[in-house]
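debug: dumping io for the single-chain case to check the tokenizer round-trip. Nothing else runs in this session.
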Amino acid sequence: MTAAAAAPATATAPTLDRRQRSLSTYEGWKDFAERPPREQPETLTVDQLDALDPGAQARYDAERRAWHANILLRTRQVHGVHTQLADILDSNLQDSDRVKSAAALDAPPALGKSTVVNTFGRDFHRQRIAEIGEYLDADRDVPHLPVCHITVPGRLTIKGLHMMILGFYAHPATAGILHRSMAGRDLARAAADCIERHDTRLVIIDDLHFLSMRTRDGVEVANQLKWLSNEYSATFLFAGVALRERGLVGEGAVGKEAAMAQTFRRWTVLSLDPYSLRTKHTRDDWCSLLWHIEQALVLADSRDGMLVDMSRYLFARTTGNIGSLMDLIRRGASRAIRTGQESIDRALLDDIRIDEGAETERGELEARLDKQEAALRERRRAKAAAKQQPAEEKPAA
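debug: decoded output
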């Protein structure tokens, strides 16, 4: 089942002030996790839209653009990943002497890995705040921070890893030159103290594919991650592209790579897959996704089936990649508003470019789908002709 993230509201709902903060700071994460959901603007008719004065229409269009740019869908696949992650966190309530499992989301690019782990982290944050509260002491001096979120840079060292964790909590060690005089083990202990002090139970490390297993720093960080999962009372959730192919998840490694196999042996690896049209089930899933996107669009001249009727075309344009699909639809909705067309059709989308990967594969995939469609029509015609053939003309058994 797929559902939009927010419920409809009136077109006159005030636009919230949403500052763009990094999720890798506790202020940015709290803002992301605790802010109220966006309200879907009311869908006006063409006549109602024409009746708005210029100022009201400008505000309405701005609300619609912001809404379309932030449409969030929970697909069946996302729900399944969230369920698995919830199982892992619930089972990690062991005492401090037990080793906790970690989780990794391994998927091709632009399938929404970051969105999946961030929305799960947001749900977990809200759950823990509801259970325990916003502060951990009677004087309200120690804020409760259930989730720590960091994003791996291009090259990561052990010291850099601990500095990023400390940076999330705005620890004094990250200011000035103080950290230069601190040994790596002291930084590690300070990071562990932050996690314990603020009762952090989930540590999200995104873009882990930037961690190179072919460098000494990469191997050392891999070993350090194992130590962190043992030392911290938190569950680690990693997200990245092609983690298996990059050597981040493996078994049976020997020699220099043996440490990596041990480091990631306790990981539960989850995945996201592109959509396909190979079977009726996968085609239904694709059409269901398009239908739910339709329901989230706020266009005056939209109609039921506006996107579903273009299902094969949209698949060819985006190769079944939800990131490419959402970019195409968002840009199409924006252009439909700017031009006054107030609907999305193939002619409008044909003129919109998206990511190079989708554009490069588009021609080949369209040709293959057209060939499959022609073969399917031919089989249907042959089957219909066989049914109409007189009984006496049919060959004997």
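debug: round-trip ok. The radius of gyration is 26 Å.
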